[in-house]
Amino acid sequence: MKIVVGHLYPDYLNIYADRGNIAVLARRAAWRGHELDVRGLGIGDPVDQAAYDLLYVGGGQDREQALVAPDIAAKADGLKAAVEAGTPVLAVCGGYQLLGRFYRDRDGSELPGAGVLPLETMAGDRRMIGDVLLECEFGARPRTLAGFENHAGRTLLDPGAEPLGRVVAGHGNDGESGYEGCRLANAVGTYLHGPLLPRNPWLADWLLGTALGEELEPLPDELEREAHAVAAERARRRGGRS
Ligand code: GLN
Prior knowledge:
12 strands, 28% helix, binds glutamine, 33% strand, alpha/beta, six-stranded mixed sheet
């Protein structure tokens, strides 16, 4: 099968190797005989909900976010329709913030978001940086996610909104709530860079499986499991929210 991926703002929102997530999706799809067809979605490009099997957006500094914010707000209808239709979405850090209602940056400027995820973000004075470990529930199985965070933003989820996971080590959404990320239908927002997917292959397979409408057979993943274990141990050594 061909899996069509809409990659939002590949030239603006791509820090801390976030583009590596696309490489992992492509490789894990190919190992199962599928092909990833990645199409850039830039400023002014409409989001036709039916055209994409998966949507992805990476992270970025305040400056890059300011350049794309008005455009992602203008894409709100297409993005909302995609999420409502169950399209799997992975949004990382700056992209995650801009899927919410707004991101108020360190200068106090309010960057409009797409308002797809039930959250808003305000930048704080101190950046939240370091290895992170989460516990999350996907399907019946408890899972862990290990990654790296580097953000000034403090994200507040609306009451009743579903976080991605519980923080075992690290700051997470705001360094206080004890939660990280947000889930809505098949959309996943997170602060976790790294890139995220090489050391968390189960999430890559969940995204691909959801796009294909099937549960993928797990792969051996020795190296990936080792990378996860190393990242998780580093996060644990860092301890709770320091
Ligand atoms: N600029 C945003 C912040 O500092 C997002 C940073 C990022 O994508 N790593 O919170």
